[in-house]
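Summary of Year 1 activities. Much of the first year was spent building the evaluation harness for sequence design. The harness presents a backbone, in tokenized form, and records the residue chosen at every position. We chose the following record to illustrate the format because it has been used consistently in internal testing since the harness was completed.
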């Protein structure tokens, strides 16, 4: 009887191990992969006349170094709320800066009279971004590319590590 019990447990261990080996990669490792998924951002507008941007031109816009495209089209930028994770990710990807660093940058620009920060939305909901862009014909916004409407004029995409 004792030998029979040991044999029964001995056989169930490999079966249990096999089940765990099949389940763990799907659950534990699959969810880790999803959490580390890189977000791609799009800088976009509804104005079809606005040209595509180089990364350096996009950086200049978001640092307030330029406010015009093609020498004559004055543009207006909008920013996501300070608490938005997308804002943190976007500034990190495009400028290599945190939101705190950008707030300090804009504080010094405003104090010296060299510029003012982009208008800040109250939420990072794509509906609010679209509403703002509809009110501002030369407006430019950013959002995760998966949320950008199909009719938007994508000026540049920003990937992590670029």
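For this record, the design step produced the sequence shown next.
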């Amino acid at each position: 009887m004792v030998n029979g019990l040991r044999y029964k447990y001995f056989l169930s261990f490999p079966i249990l191990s096999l089940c765990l080996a099949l389940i763990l990669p799907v659950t534990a490792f699959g969810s880790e992969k999803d959490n580390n998924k890189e977000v791609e951002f799009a800088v976009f507008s509804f104005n079809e006349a606005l040209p595509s941007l180089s990364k350096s031109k996009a950086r200049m816009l978001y640092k307030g170094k330029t406010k015009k495209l093609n020498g004559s089209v004055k543009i207006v930028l909008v920013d996501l709320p300070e608490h938005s994770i997308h804002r943190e990710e976007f500034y990190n990807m495009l400028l290599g800066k945190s939101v705190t660093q950008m707030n300090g940058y804009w504080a010094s620009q405003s104090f010296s009279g060299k510029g003012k920060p982009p208008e800040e939305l109250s939420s990072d909901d794509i509906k609010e971004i679209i509403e703002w862009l509809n009110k501002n014909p030369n407006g430019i916004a950013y959002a995760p590319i998966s949320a950008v409407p199909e009719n938007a004029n994508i000026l540049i995409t920003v990937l992590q590590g670029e």
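The CA atoms of residues 1 and 7 lie 10 Å apart. Quantitative recovery figures across the full test set are reported in Table 2.
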